[in-house]
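Consider one such protein record:
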Amino acid sequence: MPAARALYEHYARDPRQEIGNVISDDWIWRLPHIVNRAHLRADAGDARGRADLEQLLVELERISSQGVVHNDTMYWAANAHALLGRHERALQQLDDAIRHGWRHAWWARHDCNMQSLAADPRYGPLLARG
């Protein structure tokens, strides 16, 4: 974990810029890096991890309020909420992502950011739709 955290710290990303890249379809490994770095920071006891997740959610809400609907941004918002311990909101975001066409349940089953949802009886059925 320390080596992974060092890598994320070295290649720090700005959420606003990355969301802009998502909108322009250059998203493939950008939002995951924001969320994964925040997760690694939080696991290391670094308060910036939670702050990064909160900032990401603010930016995602900003674009959503402008009418931008993207199933991948919804999935990564679900990740952020799950990591912040907001399981109801995470499940709601995951449901929204699936309703808008997100179809990567295989990914979510292995996504360490979503592990806190695995025990919830609603999680499996949600993924079965994704």
Notes: Residues 48-65 form the longest helix (18 residues).
